[in-house]
Design a protein that fits this description.
It is a single chain. The protein is α/β, with parallel strands linked by helices. It has one domain: TIM Barrel. The chain is 39% helix and 17% strand. The chain is built from ten helices and eight strands. The chain has an eight-stranded parallel barrel, surrounded by five helices. β3, α3 and β4 form a beta-alpha-beta unit. α7 runs parallel beside α8. Bound molecules: 2-phosphoglycolic acid. 2-phosphoglycolic acid binds next to β8.
């Protein structure tokens, strides 16, 4: 199976920067062969023009979040149907920045996943422990609890799990290879129990320098990249790692 390289642009690039990034990426992708599945997740207002700029290059579009509601009077929310109309095939749900800054509960996340799966969007569901939880040796209990928030009937659903230790996001710290291997084994084991063979991505300070080693680990099916996805030189290194 192809590895996934997912770019999470967060609320960082403005239009001109986003445009320049996609221009560079598209021309590189069109000239290359044997690439992984590249997924770009821009901020909502840029989804449509980014999708148009792919101009047929095999790059997929993803959103960074979605509403837990199907439609209606929910000011400021964006539904999965709208994301589909913008050309999204993927949606990130449960990123630690959403869990933390927006107090997204496990119940809300479950509803979001249900909405996304109803519309056949591939869900990139993020899990991972905080620094304190890690110090208290709660890593696996936390991951298990977060995975339990997934809806019960998801067998064969288009689902990808991203293991993102919170303390590694945007900090320049990455988990050790052993930590990554063990966490991914644990996640794959939990998913198998509910009948899912789910790809598991690693995220947290992935760079052009460390991507190759991380991606060569047996049970790493791809990476979720924040900061380094905003520099095309670094991001491309990750894509061809
Ligand atoms: P980072 O972010 O690569 O900047 O650590 C990863 C993420 O938040 O998904």
């Amino acid at each position: 199976m192809k590895k996934f390289i997912v770019a999470n642009w967060k609320m960082i690039p403005l239009r001109a920067e986003a445009k320049a990034l996609v221009e560079q990426l598209t021309s590189k992708v069109l000239a290359a062969t044997n690439l992984p599945q590249i997924v770009i997740c821009p901020p909502y207002p840029y989804l449509t023009f980014v999708q148009e700029m792919f101009s047929g290059a095999p790059i997929a579009l993803g959103a960074q979040d979605c509403s837990s509601h199907e439609e209606g009077a929910f000011t400021g929310e964006v539904s999965v149907t709208m994301l589909k109309e913008c050309g999204c095939q993927y949606v990130i749900i449960g990123h630690s920045e959403r869990r933390h800054y927006h107090q997204e509960s496990e119940e809300i996340l479950r509803q979001k996943v249900e909405q996304a799966l109803k519309q056949d969007l591939t869900v990139i569901f993020c899990v991972g422990e905080s620094k304190l939880q890690r110090e208290n040796e709660e890593t696996y209990a936390v991951i298990k609890r977060q995975l339990e928030a997934l809806p019960e009937k998801i067998s064969h659903a288009p689902l990808v799990i991203a293991y993102e230790p919170v303390w590694a996001i945007g900090t320049g710290l990455t988990a050790s290879f052993d930590d990554i291997k063990n966490a991914h084994d644990f996640i794959k084991g939990c998913m198998k129990k509910i009948g899912q063979e789910t790809p598991v991505l690693y995220g947290g300070s992935v760079t052009g320098e460390n991507a190759q080693e991380i991606l060569s680990l047996d049970n790493v099916d791809g990476v979720l990249v924040g900061r380094a996805s905003l520099n095309m030189e670094s991001f491309w290194k990750i894509c061809v790692a």
